[in-house]
């Protein structure tokens, strides 16, 4: 039987850029944002006016994405998903062109069982179709995605969702049973 | 009215890597392949056994894709297509991870009217859906592509095609009338 297509997002799903963003911001501006302060919000909307461009500079710094922490249990669950589904990692990375090679190298290091054919670094995800998508941005759940699974991140905690997972163990319970 | 989605391939459609590949090969092995010698074939199948990996090394050399020649009339026609269609440039670049930033920079230089949201560097194109696709590889014309336009390249000249264009003027005649 043909495997279902499963699209998995990188940032805030497989990798954690938010902890590093907050750490760099605290280093430069002596202000460490708490989980409570960014609940339901994007970091760019929380920092003082004019500082959103600083966050952009962090994200486009060569190397920023290269050593991000892997989300807990992501490797083990992805390994199993990769057996059962036709898995693709799709990241809207094009806004940060200096991240492209870093993201590829990061995947090679932590998810070596994924082939280059399974990686897609795009701008908009609106040309991407799949049976299932796991993403922290509901804006990526367009009509071409059949089953939409919202991965909880600080900015989406108050959003409604068809299906929601809070961690990779919950992904496993949903998709590997 | 919602614009139709148009996916355009880069290599051998917008950019010419084949001339450069043949030039580098001639530089290193003193053999310049003619159009006749590569007609209906992939360069990797024409070079002596064991030399396909040399072509791969050329393609993955940082900078290889950065200064490729733009295909004749591609800029002018793409500018007009970009007004009429929802255009995305989709390149199966992930096989050559050192090409990623070069391809982005090349597009910025020659097609500055394209936004980062319109660029997608992927592995397989089988998760990409569109109303229209222009590509030199018919293997990319899967069920999610409604109208399939084969752009003539040396390797596909003997292939059947739903629709075929031989140059960008023919693209204009087909899609801008």
Automatic annotation (TrEMBL), chains A, B:
Organism domain of life: Bacteria
GO molecular function ontology, one term from the record: 5'-nucleotidase activity
Pfam families hit by this protein: NT5C
Protein family per UniProt: Belongs to the 5'(3')-deoxyribonucleotidase family.
Gene3D superfamilies found in the cross-reference section: Deoxyribonucleotidase, domain 2, HAD superfamily/HAD-like
PANTHER family: 5'(3')-DEOXYRIBONUCLEOTIDASE
Active site residues according to the UniProt entry: 9 (nucleophile), 11 (proton donor)
Protein name stated in the entry: 5'(3')-deoxyribonucleotidase
GO biological process, one term: pyrimidine deoxyribonucleotide catabolic process
SUPFAM superfamilies: HAD-like
Span of the signal peptide: none
């Amino acid at each position: 039987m043909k495997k279902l297509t499963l699209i998995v997002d990188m940032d805030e799903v497989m990798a954690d850029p938010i902890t590093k963003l907050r750490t760099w911001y605290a280093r430069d501006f002596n202000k460490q944002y708490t989980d409570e302060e960014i609940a339901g919000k994007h970091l760019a909307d929380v920092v003082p006016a004019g500082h959103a461009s600083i966050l952009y500079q962090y994200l486009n710094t060569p190397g920023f994405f290269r050593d991000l922490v892997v989300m807990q249990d992501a490797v083990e669950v992805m390994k199993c998903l990769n057996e059962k589904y036709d898995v693709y990692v799709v990241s809207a990375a094009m806004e940060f062109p200096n991240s492209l090679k870093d993201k590829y190298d990061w995947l090679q290091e932590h998810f070596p069982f994924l082939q280059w054919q399974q990686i897609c670094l795009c701008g908009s995800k609106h040309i991407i179709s799949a049976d299932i998508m796991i993403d922290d941005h509901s804006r990526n759940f367009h009509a071409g995605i059949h089953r939409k699974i919202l991965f909880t991140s600080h900015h989406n905690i108050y959003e409604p969702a068809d299906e929601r997972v809070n961690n990779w163990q919950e992904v496993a319970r949903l998709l590997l049973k």
